[in-house]
Design a protein that fits this description.
Non-ribosomal Peptide Synthetase Peptidyl Carrier Protein, Chain A; elongated; mainly alpha; 3 helices; two-stranded antiparallel sheet; two-stranded antiparallel ribbon
Length: 146
Amino acid sequence: MGMIKEFKEFAMRGNVVDMAVGIIIGGAFGKIVSSMVNDVLMPPIGVLMGGVDFSSLAVTVKAATADAAGKAIPAVVISYGKFINTIIDFIIVAFCIFMVIKAMNALKKKPAPAPAGPPTTKNCPFCLSTIPIKATRCPACTSEVK
């Protein structure tokens, strides 16, 4: 019974719940960004580049074949168009996260500066050089200082 209680306390801590909510929202946000890239951003870029559909760009390493029994063996393909879409997804998500963190840092209260302590130096009344506050004689002009 003690282990279940300990797990419940762990799972209900604020940080764990906040992290779980962040992961769920992040997953949903990732899907939105993927849809925006694949369905909104890449088609016009493809049209501007001469009607290229990025998701179908690929290099065929080995063509599809059939074995002796007539069973189809799929082609070996490097789908670099999907990779380009994924890179654009990542850049958009990273930029959005950067902007959120930048906004959070701007809203974070900066600590008040520590109050200044008592002075540790003073000026010599004769030559105006800076000397320690406890000095009885100025090292620059050798005058006695009170």
